[in-house]
Amino acid sequence: MGTTVVVGAGIAGVRTVQGLIRRGHSDPIVVIGAELHAPYDRPPLSKEVLHGDVPLPALLPTDQEVGANVEWHPGVTALSLDTRLQQLVTSEGLVAYDILVIATGAHARRVSGLPGTVLRTWDDALNLRGRLRQTTSITIIGAGLIGCEVAASARKVGAQVHLVDTLSAPMIRVVGPSLAEVVSDLHRAQGVTLHLSTGVQEVVGGKARLLDGAICPAEVLLHAVGAAPNTAWLADSGLDVVDGVRCDQLGRAQAPNVYAVGDVAAWRGTRNEHWSSAIDQAGVVAAAITGQEISELPLQYWWSDQYDVKFQGVGTINGADEVRIGVWGPARRTVALYGIGGRMCGVVGLSAAKAVMGLRGEIAAGAQLDEVAARFGGLCEASGTAPRPAAVRGAPGHLRVAADHRGPA
C-alpha cells in the first residue's frame, strides 16, 4: 500500500490515524501538523479553558499508543500539492505519498477592517483567557455557537459581555428562529447585553460603535464570525476547493489516492464543522483506505455547553418547513422537533439528552412528524419556519413550552 501521509493533526487527522491502526494498517504513516503542540481537542477551548486552569486537552496521552509505524512532524506547514507526482511541498521540504489524507481544518474568519482577536487554537485560548482576567468587559462579534459559548465563559469569570450579531437572534442558523428566542432569553437572564440586527461600524479609542449607534467597550474584541477551510495551499493542486475540498460519500477527492476529512472537507458538497462529523468521516476514510466494509455516515450530531445548559442536536434543520417546540419530561426540558414535508428531519434539545438521542431512529427513518409529536403527548405547538414559543397545557412528561430548561440531562 505504501506511505500514507496525513496533513493535519487535529481531531480528524488523529482519528484517521487511529482508525487505520485499529484496522490493521501496518505500512508507514506520516502525520504533518502545523502547530508545535501535541494534538489536542478544540471543544474545551471556548469553555473550560477560558474559565478554568485546565491543561492542554490532549488527544493522545503518548504517540506510542497510536502505532510504531507512525511518524509525527509537528510545526511543519504544507505549502503546495502536486497530485500528478504524488508529493507535497512543506516548510521542511518535499514529502512523497502513496495515499494522502487532507485534514488541515479551518481558520477563524475576521470582520474586515476591524481590530480584535479570534479563538481557534490553544494559543488563541490562552491569550483570550489571560485578557479576560485583566479586563472587566468583552465585546463579541458573532452570536453563533462559538460566540455564545465564549459569552457564557466570560460571564463565569465575571466579565461584562456585549454580544453583537447582524442576525435577529443568537444561534439562529443552528436552531432556527423559534429556539433562538429561547437562546436570547438564556443569555439575557445571565446578564449578557445582546445587540441584534446590527454590526460593528468602527472601533475608536477603545470603543466599538455599532451600526445602530450603540457604543460597546472594545478593550477585548473577539471575532466569532465562523471559519474558512484551510485550502490556500491546494490552489494549484487541481482539486476542487470551493468552500472546502470537494469529496464523494467516502471522502475521496478529485485525484487518485487523495481523501479529505474534517472541517476542510466538503463531502457531497457540504462541510459539517462539528467535532462528531470529523470523527465519523475519519472512520469512513480509514475503512476505505484499508479496503474494509464501510458503514454510512451516521446522522449529524452536535452539542454546545452554555452556563448550566447542554444544547444537543441530531439530524438537520436545513430546509425544515415545520417545527414543534415545547418541553419534555417532568424536568420540563425544552425540545424542538423539525420536519420537512411532514417528516421528521431533526431535533434540538436543551439538557434533554434522552429525548434527543432517543429520536435518532425516527429521524433516520423520516418518521411522520405528527406521529412523533403524538408520542410526546400530542401537545406540541405546530408552526411554520419562523415560530415563537406559545404556552400550551399538558400533563407532566408531555411536550409543552419550556419554563425551565436548566440542569443536567
CATH topology of the largest domain: FAD/NAD(P)-binding domain
Main sheet specs:
6 strands, antiparallel
- Count of distinct structural domains: 3
Radius of gyration: 22 Å
- Percent helix, as a range, is 10-25%
End-to-end separation in angstroms reads 46 Å
Beta-strand proportion: 25-35%
What is the average per-residue confidence, as pLDDT, rounded to a whole number?
Answer: 90
Q: Strand order within the widest sheet? A: 20-21-24-23-22-25
Folded structure, characterized:
Strand 20 (301-306) and strand 21 form a beta hairpin. The protein folds into 3 domains: 4-108 and 227-289, FAD/NAD(P)-binding domain (3-Layer(bba) Sandwich), CATH 3.50.50.60; 122-223, FAD/NAD(P)-binding domain; 308-383, FAD/NAD-linked reductase, C-terminal dimerisation domain (Enolase-like, domain 1, 2-Layer Sandwich), CATH 3.30.390. Helices cover 22% and strands 28% of the residues. The longest helix is centred in the middle third of the chain and has 18 residues, at 172-189. The protein contains 9 helices and 25 strands. A 6-stranded antiparallel sheet has the order 20-21-24-23-22-25. A 5-stranded parallel sheet has the order 3-2-1-7-18, with helices on one face. The termini are far apart. The protein has helices at residues 11-22, 48-51, 122-132, 145-156, 172-189, 275-289, 353-357, 360-365, 369-375; strands spanning 4-7, 29-33, 70-74, 78-82, 87-90, 93-96, 99-102, 106-108, 137-141, 160-165, 193-196, 200-204, 207-210, 215-217, 221-223, 227-229, 245-247, 258-260, 265-267, 301-306, 309-315, 322-328, 333-340, 343-350, 381-383. The protein is α/β, with parallel strands linked by helices.
